[in-house]
Amino acid sequence: MEDPLPEQMRTAGGALLAALDEPARARAAYRFDDEAARRWLEYRPAPRPGACLADLDVVGRKAAHRLLATALSPAAYAQAMAIVALEEVLDRAEGWRRGRHSGDYWVAVFGDPERDDRWAWRLEGHHLSVSMTVVDDQVSPAPIFFGANPAAVRHGGRPVSRPLGIEEDLGRALLDTIGPAGRAAAIIDDEAPGDIISATRPRVDGPLEPLGVPADRLGPTGRALLDQLVALYLDRLPPELAIREAKRLDSRELHFAWAGPMSPGQRHYYRIQGDDLLIEYDNTTDDGNHAHTVLRRPASDFGQDVLAAHHTTTPHP
After folding, report:
1. pLDDT digit string, tens, across residues 236-290
2. Spatial distance between the Cα atoms of 77 and 236, rounded to a whole number of angstroms
3. CA-CA-CA-CA torsion for 6, 281, 45, 13, nearest 10 degrees?
4. Exposure pattern of 62-72 as b/e (b: 16+ CB <10 Å)?
5. Whole-angstrom distance, CA of residue 280 vs CA of residue 298
6. Residues ≥6 apart with Cβ < 8 Å to 45
7. What pLDDT sits at residue 146?
């Protein structure tokens, strides 16, 4: 059965460019071989390549959202919209000093989605970065970054907003389940790092050391929770793409590492690594109320896997 996702992305990408006026289209459209712009990853608030959604009319903004929705499952799209809305919450918490707002997100398209056999796109802003590459009608996802500040807004001890709550809860459940011996291997540092280790680098070289505890040293419950945690991140993708990515993994080769205290409300970090897989989570600033998460494929980020296959059959000068 033919995968409908590449055509859905092509249609949405073409509709986006068609919805933009000439100045906006000039800001949004890049050559596919503009490596610096295409391999851009930045989750902090700063100008970036592309057209800013705040500068687009309603039709253009809606077209950008429709393109984003092709890359995310319904649940992940809801997370993304909650992350965007937090810009207004954060701006209020900061006394309106920085002028943050929910339009500070940029969309960029690399190549021509309607004509080229290689094209890509990205929607990105503070705490949200989604990059997709389409080559020979194969979609290559990643990096996908979701963050949240504040990570949790509570009222009367109950969460009002907690977009990345499941990512934290499952990580903690796994750490609790694996027992003292598993934790001794999994906890790589008593203090969490200041941020995710892969940061904004366009390439991640090799596994991050130390690896932590291997999956084959976990009991059945621990293995099941580790699989659930990986699935949670893969399920940010549309179902057909998440299934394909899951089939690429050998769950026996996974490693889980934790840094920081085990108690909730303190700065903490975890990561999962496998063959061409890197998942990182941190909640390490603002006293453990500012979360970052990323799904990366170190050997395949920004479409490196599908591009390598393409170049073996279709030489480019």
Report:
1. 999 999 999 999 998 889 999 999 999 998 999 999 999 999 999 999 987 789 9
2. 8
3. 0
4. ebbbbbbbbbb
5. 12
6. 98, 100, 104, 125, 126
7. 98
